[in-house]
Amino acid sequence: xxxxxxxxxxxxxxxxxxxxxxxxxxxxxxxxxxxxxxxxxxxxxxxxxxxxxxxxxxxxxxxxxxxxxxxxxxxxxxxxxxxxxxxxxxxxxxxxxxxxxxxxxxxxxxxxxxxxxxxxxxxxxxxxxxxxxxxxxxxxxxxxxxxxxxxxxxxxxxxxxxxxxxxxxxxxxxxxxxxxxxxxxxxxxxxxxxxxxxxxxxxxxxxxxxxxxxxxxxxxxxxxxxxxxxxxxxxxxxxxxxxxxxxxxxxxxxxxxxxxxxxxxxxxxxxxxxxxxxxxxxxxxxxxxxxxxxxxxxxxxxxxxxxxxxxxxxxxxxxxxxxxxxxxxxxxxxxxxxxxxxxxxxxxxxxxxxxxxxxxxxxxxxxxxxxxxxxxxxxxxxxxxxxxxxxxxxxxxxxxxxxxxxxxxxxxxxxxxxxxxxxxxxx
Length: 427
What we know:
Blueprint: H1 2-9, E1 16-20, E2 31-35, H2 41-63, H3 73-105, E3 107-112, E4 116-123, E5 126-133, E6 137-144, E7 156-162, E8 165-169, H4 175-188, E9 197-199, E10 206-208, H5 211-224, H6 241-260, H7 264-290, H8 294-320, H9 332-341, H10 343-363, H11 372-400, H12 404-426
Antiparallel strand pairs: 1-5, 2-3, 3-4, 4-5, 6-7, 7-8, 9-10
Helix pairs in contact: 2-3, 3-8, 6-10, 6-12, 7-8, 7-10, 7-11, 8-11, 11-12
């Protein structure tokens, strides 16, 4: 937590961590250097054992997916539960596998241009790394690892200071090679000779010890900071395009009730399916924020969000399907038929949330400063409020009977909660 606060305080100079392959355009890369990477066979065996151990439950559950099915909803739910569990569990297995193979076969590589330095541990051109803007880099030096320290395995290696933090790289680099490398880095980064940036206490602000350094840092921030599209600077209100689109989509169930005799069950199924639309756009947001790191977080999000939706679907069929007897089962064909009938209304919700994604998340640059972990949990804030309102309204309909006034009240309650959450989320 303390380190995260220090990184937040760096503002635009904070290093960017991520997973990726392409680092620089061909004309920007100046240096590409691979370093000796001493391997600890004890750690390799330890991580390999964890990788194998965590893989066993994944394959054990996978063996049950091909079992007999009677085509019922609850058989489908059992399979989906297993699939979503496997997706969530596979993230841990994948991470352990990456750690194992990186320790076994990976190489540590430095990429440098006049503006940026990237350190990455990779394998077959793909890896995990961090990108450091040149404005914060100072004091390249050769260091000797302390015995029994966390960096003991590196032996003689290199390091530099970055906004008060020490960044170390390489392992078992002899003195002659170290002197050659340090000369290259100090030549590439002449800012080495200016005073280092001093990070302000308030997160997001960068100050400097001397006026000349302050000017350099300010120019770097001004040159790299993106600017929001002028069309999307206004606060989100009831009259904003995304709010009006959401209002229009929420009015379709109203016409369904008035003109097509929709029941409470059909209204609830539609609002359940809207959650899947919200989950879909959240995956797109996670991609914008984290790029390749969504390979780790995406399956985990699908796993726990899918489990949430399955439980909700069981709840709806169990409590609001008046045609379902207590000992009856439901076929997947019935579920599909219900969704097909509601497809036009569901398409309206898809378009509505798409407009919000384009206008608010992309147009107003809501992704700036967000972390992928926070974005992963964001849909729940809105969905929980929305569905508590729906369930409360649904029980009111059941108490007073499935009559028109009660259904209209349910739709109005959901619309009010949805619009309020939408405006609060985007402001």
